[in-house]
């Protein structure tokens, strides 16, 4: 079985997320300080969560890169799903803190300053976040990293909420209704809470050893069928995803008179082609004699 190893790109992206998170936190913190806006303060608070999630993502990606050992013979791939659960918890805590501030801000409205520099800085931070979110999602899919994709989706949610906050702050300035600032802060909290729920849901699904999608399974079956010449059939095909790894298991029925060496050659051929089709594929083939044929699954001859 080939050992899984995350590409250096995934680790570099995780480190980049931490750097971007710190820069954006500084920018948004400054914007909240100079304006005194509760909504912008809530937005900055979410950036603290972004920094924490970037740290968790970095640890998870590096841990998932470790090869299988005696303690975890199937590898550390699921570390990324656990990281997404931790991120979801932090997001939920941030949302609750924002709701608290929004409540007191609505009861006792706070005046804020329409500082153009502060608003401009917040816009710059949003542009940086948007560009990096796109990078994480696109490259995370390419690297098949749940942690990087989760971090990117969270950042994209942050971008949307910040845009809403900036529009609302401008409306509050025009209308003079300072309670709108608190309402916007609460809306940011709801957006963050929804993001956290999605991360937790996807992570739990990943931890439950979900199978590959039907289109991918069909392609796996086609690869097995096209490279199983000499065998009789392949049945009981099972798949599961764990981080960037795809586990594929099935039974391969061969003629009873076939030598072990010949059967092994067929298995090697199938495994090689599956790994070409599915990067980081972990293939397990159980060879059986022809009296074990079920005449189902993939019939070769």
UniProtKB/TrEMBL annotation:
Keyword GTP-binding: no
A molecular function (GO) term: ferrous iron transmembrane transporter activity
All copies of domain Cation efflux protein cytoplasmic, residue ranges: 214-290
A Gene Ontology cellular-component term: plasma membrane
Subcellular location: Cell membrane
All copies of domain Cation efflux protein transmembrane, residue ranges: 17-208
Membrane topology: Multi-pass membrane protein
Main localisation: membrane
Pfam family, one: ZT_dimer
Listed InterPro entries: Cation_efflux (IPR002524), Cation_efflux_CTD (IPR027470), Cation_efflux_CTD_sf (IPR036837), Cation_efflux_TM (IPR058533), Cation_efflux_TMD_sf (IPR027469), CDF_Transporter (IPR050291)
Alphabetical GO biological process terms: intracellular zinc ion homeostasis
Parts of the chain that traverse the membrane: none
Keyword line: Cell membrane, Membrane, Transmembrane, Transmembrane helix, Transport
Similarity comment text for this entry: Belongs to the cation diffusion facilitator (CDF) transporter (TC 2.A.4) family.
NCBIfam families in the cross-refs: CDF
Record-given protein name: Protein p34
Organism (species): Paradevosia tibetensis
